[in-house]
Amino acid sequence: MKNQIIKEFKERFTSSPTLYASAGRINLIGEHTDYNGGFVFPGAIDKGIMAAVAPNAGERVRVYAVNLGEYAEFGLEEKDAPRQSWARYVFGVAREIIKRGGTVKGFDAVFAGDVPLGAGLSSSAALESCFAFALNDLFNDNRIDRIELARIGQSTEHNYCGVNCGIMDQFASVMGQRGKLIRLDCRSMEYEYFPFDPADYELVLIDSKVKHELAGSPYNRRRESCERVAARLGVETLRDATMDMLEAAKSDISDEDYKRAKFVIEEKERVLTVCDALLAGDYEEVGRQMYATHRGLSADYEVSCEELDFLNEVARECGVAGSRIMGGGFGGCTINLVAKDRMSHFVTEAVGRFRERYGHAPEVYPVVISAGARRLD
Ligand code: GLA
Predict the structure, then answer these.
(1) pLDDT digits (tens, 9 = 90+) for 49-95
(2) Which of 31, 104, 195, 322 could form a disulfide with 337 if both were Cys (CB 3.0 to 4.6 A apart)?
(3) Are 110 and 9 in contact (CB under 8 A)?
(4) Does the beta carbon of 41 sit less than 6 angstroms from any atom of ligand 1?
């Protein structure tokens, strides 16, 4: 990827660029908890975005997206927002830096990536954090700290891409470290790295290939439900709500909002249970919590789909320790915690049975927990 990006850059521009990279993410557990002030447990992965970037001494941005074969050029004022959705991520990051008092001048860039699009692995966060990191390095002497870089990516989603997401994806993409998952408290932004290297288990993703698209999707409506219930319970976010509080208010809340809030309150506890289980090396317990999350995401939060429920069921039948839909939902992958000696059986079964039922094979990605945003020297 690196050589191709440099070659494409040289064909289009004259300056010599610096290379940056960032990562997609997985999340072990803690779904839809981030915008509710709860806990998440993500890590960066070995699939990401790489970009060659150089200031061009002007005021315009010129970017070429290798995988799409598309070019965009735009200015840096609010009125200059480009049309192409991928270019809006780059524009949004630049604008959010400027809004915070940082500097961005014209630049040229070429980028490529290997995060599968629409698979729930946060290709958009990878793109945002790659450019946030690059523009901080090239124009701001790295004065913006990493957590703020994640917030810049999140604000880009809110203000330029129509997704009212939480902080998890951008945080994982910016803060990820090799071999470590991160438990993040999204209320206080306190975080802790957890080495993840079980001797007898592995994580694998099975991509249903059902396109997951959060922009303009029911994702924002899920968030609105949570905010409505929090307001009704008199708490800032559902992080401060309990099942007792929810039960007491049940008659004032729609059935749908009740189910959404119930999932979030239960999920918050599951993340903490998983932390204890990880510290005790009890991966079967981690797995049980993952199945419970899947049930909640499917029945109460209603962000699963038939294909993902099917993959979850196949995992259970194959004796997989844990399995659940991962990320925002509405398609994408399941994440599976599998005893090493069951892995090949599970993958064969999942691929074969899925193909038989839906007429196409799912994609299988082993998970390698890797570094987040960085400059490549
Ligand atoms: C998407 C969002 C995240 C988070 C997850 C669900 O990935 O971008 O902020 O809400 O969905 O956990």
Answers:
(1) 999 999 999 999 999 999 999 999 999 999 999 999 999 999 999 99
(2) 322
(3) yes
(4) no
